[in-house]
Task: structure prediction
Amino acid sequence: MDQSAVVAQMRQLIQVLAQHNHAYYVMDQPTIEDSEYDQLFHQLKALEQQHPELTQPDTPTRKVGGKALSKFETLTHSVPMLSLGNVFNQQELNDFARRIEERLPNQKIQYDVELKFDGLAISLWYEHGILVRGVTRGDGETGEVITENVKTIRNLPKVLTSTTTPIPELLEVRGEVLMPKAGFEKLNAENEAKGEKTFANPRNAAAGSLRQLDPSIAASRPLAFYAYGIAQCQPHHGQSTMSASLEWLTQFGFAVGEQHFVCDSIQEVQTAYEKINAERPNLSVEIDGMVIKVDDLKQQQQLGFLSREPRWATAYKFPAVAALTTVDNIDWQVGRTGTLTPVARLNPVAVGGVTVSNVTLHNIGEIHRLDVRIGDTVSVYRSGDVIPKVEKVWPEFRPVDSVEVHLPEQCPVCDSPVVMPEGEALARCSGGLYCAAQRIEAIRHFVSRKAMDIEGLGDRWAESLLHLDLLKDVADIYHLHAHREKLLTIEKMGEKSVQNLIDSIEKSKKTSFASFIFALGIRGVGETTARMLANTFQTLDALRNADLDALKKTPDVGDITAEWIIDFFQAPHNLEVVDRLIAAGIHWDAPIAPTRQPLNGESWVVTGTLSSMGRDEATQMLQALGARVSGSVSAKTKCLVAGEKAGSKLDKAEKLGVAVLDEQAFLALMAEYGQSLDA
Ligand code: IVH
Result:
C-alpha cells in the first residue's frame, strides 16, 4: 500500500469511529456492537503501528471516548480517568505479560483478575467519609458532575463508617455504574407496557438513567455501583496490592465484582478467563471481558503509562459475538395466537460459537426501523445466552437487486386476510377459528370452562384429536360422535371416556349467547366484553352485521377491539365455521334485555380490604350495574372503592382527582341501586 492509500484508510476509520463514538457516548444509542467497534479500532491501531509517521493527529487511539454534555456542570479530574488496552486471545495476553516481564526482570509478578463491567465509569469523592461528589468519566480529562444522581444509587455508601479502620480525610474511588440484568429486564418490560422507550442494553439504560437532570428518575432506576480502584487516598490506606485495596474498600460497604482472582502466572489468568467466560450468562451483571492488572501497587508504579493506557493493566475481551452475513429471504410465520412474525433466513454464519441461519425480525415495524431487505448484508449478534438478533443493516453493501419486504395481505397458512389495526405493532391472521396455525389454541379456548365448557377435551384430548385429523376446526367437535372407533384408538381413551366426552359435547350445545361469543376467541373480546356484546346486540345476526360505530358504542369495547370484531366477521372462513356450529345445534335462550344499568360503561377500581365482603363480590355488584372493573387507576377511572390499607391506588386516584368511595359510602350507593350483600 502506498502512503496516500494508508492515510486514506486511516481517515476513513477515524471518521467511522468518531461517528460511532458520538452515538455511543453522547447519544447513548450505539450504532454497532462493541466488538465491531473494537475490530475497527484495532485495525486503525495496527495501521498506526506499521506506519507511525502517518499517524493522524486526531486519532481516537490517543484519547478516550465521549465528550461531556453541556447540561451538567463539568469538572476536570485531578487524576485523569484513562482507558485500557485490549487483548483478544491467549497470544496477545502472553505478549502483554512478556512486555511486563521485560520491564521488571527477575521479579515475581502476580495478576489481579477482575470482571470488566459493561457500564459507565464514574469517580466518587469522599471528604471525611462523606460522599461530596460524583463525576462521570466524560472524555477522561473532564467529566460531568452528577452527584445528585449518584446519591440515588442504592448499593453505594453515602457515608463511610468503620469500627476498625480510620476514615480517610480524602478518598476518591473509581468504579462502574451499571444496571443488573434482572433490573434491566424489569425496567424494559415496564416501559414496554407503558408504551415508552425501551433500552437496547443495560449499559444504555444505566447511561440514560445517570444523565437524567431530574434525580428522581435516576432514583427510580435499579442502578448499582461496583468499585474497581482507588485514585487517591489521604492518608494512604496502607495496602500494597490491588486486590487488598479492593478488599479494603469492601469494609466500608463498597461492592466489588462477584468474582475476582489473584493469579500467580499468565496461564492461571487464561484459566480464570475461560471460567468467567463460561459463567458469564449466570452473572447478575453484564460484562464484556475481564480486566487483568499487575497486583502489586509498587510494580504498577514502576510500569507506569504509555500514552493514555496503563502498562500494568489490560482488558481481555470476550470473543466477538457479532458477525456479518446476508439475508437470503424473509418468511412470515404464524404463531398459535395468529401473530405474523417475519423471520430472516440467513446465509449460515458462526456467531459466538453457534451457527445462526434464522433470526426473528419481530414485526413489520422492526423491518422498517432496520430498513432490512432481502439481499442485504447484516450484522447478527448474540449477547451471553441471548437469542440472535439483527443488530444493523449495512446499506453500503446493498445489492442493486435487493427486494423490499411488505406485510402479506393473506395469511401464509390459511389465506384469511391479514389485519393490523392502527396503533397495534403486530399483524395477525384474522382466520382465528379456521387457521391451522391457530388450531390448538382456538380449540383449547373454545372448550374452556367459561366458553363452551366441554370437560376434559382441552387439556386431555385436544392434541390426540388433532393428530388423528379429527379436528380441523372447532365445528368438527360436534361431529366427533361419528368417529367412536377412531376415538377408541387414543391411548387411555376407553368406552367410558368416549361416552363422557360425547355427553359433555352434547350438553355444551345449550349455552348462552355471551359464552358463545367468548368461545369464538375474537381478539380483545374477554368474558366481560362478550357479555356486553350479547346484551347490546341480542342476536348473532345483529352482531355479525354490526358496523364499526355500533361496536364502538358498546360498553367495554374499545376502538381497537371494535376493529378486531369487524375483521373476525369479515374473514369468510370464520363465518363458515360459525355457520357450521349453529347448524350442529348450538343454541341459547335470548339474552335478558339489558336491565337498568346505571353505571353502564363506567370504569371502576376496587382496592384495599373491605370488611363486609371480598373484592370479588364488590366487583360482581358493580358489573351487575354495568360498570367495568379494572385493576388499575387511570385518568379514565370513574371511581375508586377504597377499603382498609388502600395504598398506591388510592394515592394515584387522589393525584388524578378520581372520586374515591370508602366502604360505607360504597354500600350506601349499591343499596340505592338495589344491590345488597344478600341479594
Ligand atoms: S480499571 C487506568 N477495572 O473499562 C484505567 N476498569 O476500557 C483503569 N472497566 O474506563 C480501569 N470494569 O470504565 C478497570 N474491573 C475494572 C473495570 C474497568 C470495567 C471499564 C472502565 C474503564 C474502561 C476501560
User: Anything to note?
Assistant: Residues 82-84, 114-117, 121, 137, 176, 228-229, 291, 310, 313, 315 surround 2-(butylsulfanyl)adenosine (CB under 6 Å). Confidence is low (pLDDT under 50) at residues 64-70. The longest strand covers residues 322-334. Residues 6 and 16 are 16 Å apart (CA to CA).
